[in-house]
Amino acid sequence: MKYCSHCASELTYIIPDGDNRPRFVCPACQAIFYQNPRIVAGTLPVHNGQILLCRRAIEPRRGFWTLPAGFMENGESTEQAALRETWEEAQAVVQLQSLFSMITVPHIDQVHIFFLAELEKAEFAAGDESLEVALFNEEDIPWNELAFPTVSQTLKRYFADSSAQQAAHVFDIGISQALAKGLKSSG
Ligand SMILES: [Zn+2]
Predict the structure, then answer these.
(1) Domain count along the chain
(2) Where is the Nudix hydrolase domain (predicted)?
């Protein structure tokens, strides 16, 4: 971020009055540009014990398998985002059941949320962002070809704890490393 989106002046990176961390601040119009984590919402679609996965047609991680998920849009709920992404990427209509995992990924400033979902009918197809979409038994999950750690962690926890009603898995990937890095870079 370099220029003010209101007046096009060059931004400074300073701690504003009353704040406790540096922000991008416009010296001309005083606008402050806050940067906060973005939310990725998706589903863990299950059909007769099989999991629906999508092979990505886009970067990053083109050709790798993922659960259907994507960035939330303004104005929608996390549930709506998960359902929309499942439709866009897998052309699948699912019934959301419960929050399954909520994973903080500090090194990319994202939070990933997956809902357990039931795919009632085995009806799906590759959307624009997918090369193919398929159902997998546990023993056939392509563990070495999964696109993202949050996907593999979510699947691992699902198969490790198959009792249907479980508390959501809330965890982070690499927060201690990120903290250490932050402490180091701040002196
Ligand atoms: Zn400005």
Answers:
(1) 2
(2) 36-159
pLDDT tens string 92-128: 999 999 999 999 999 999 999 999 999 999 999 999 9
- Within a domain: residue 185? no
Give me ligand 1 centre to Cα 6, in Å.
5
Measure the CA–CA gap between 31 and 11, rounded to whole angstroms. 9
For ligand 1, a single-atom ion, the residues with CB < 5 A are 4, 6-7, 9, 26, 28-29, 31
- Tell me: do 49 and 31 sit in the same domain: no
CA distances from 75 to 5, 88, 104, 174 (A): 22, 18, 22, 30
Asked if residue 13 and residue 95 are part of one domain, the reply reads: no
- CA 17 to ligand 1 center in whole angstroms: 17
Which two structure tokens, joined as six digits, stand for 10?
Answer: 């060059």
Q: What's the domain range around 15? A: 1-35
Residue 31 sits in the same domain as residue 43: no
Per-residue pLDDT, 167:
79
List the CATH number of the domain containing 28. Answer: 2.20.70.10
CA 132, 138, 143: angle at the middle one, nearest 5? 65
User: How many angstroms is it from 32 CA to the middle of ligand 1?
Assistant: 9
Question: What tens digit of pLDDT does each residue of 122-158 get?
Answer: 999 999 999 999 999 999 999 999 999 999 999 999 9
